């Protein structure tokens, strides 16, 4: 995802921001953060480094005899991770969608921004409430099967 979003970021950034310096700094901070989370998380659970489990699976299967506060923090951490991972990608995809609408379809910046920022949420509500997603899966499966059978 980093490779596909970098050109969009370069177009969005302020003119006085130096891309190479910014990207280098971000990569260094992210690398240090990943190393710290991995090491500290790996040292927190026995058998430490001799396991094939991930940190999230260790947090998910924390011992029932552990203090209640620790279990609540572990479960909250799992939920916070999944929410933050998804929320971090939404603005990136909105920017990519806006550029595609502007360049590919020729829509003005205002309407491209409005569609790119509102359409995913409207579609998510439609697909995840009721039977919208199941209907979309059934219809797309029917059309794909029909095309394959005709070929």
TrEMBL record:
The keyword Magnesium does not apply. The chain crosses the membrane at residues 23-45, 78-98, 110-130. Keywords: Membrane, Transmembrane, Transmembrane helix. Signal peptide: none annotated. It comes from the Eukaryota. PANTHER family: AMINO ACID TRANSPORTER TRANSMEMBRANE DOMAIN-CONTAINING PROTEIN, TRANSMEMBRANE PROTEIN 104-RELATED. This is Amino acid transporter transmembrane domain-containing protein. It comes from Symbiodinium necroappetens.
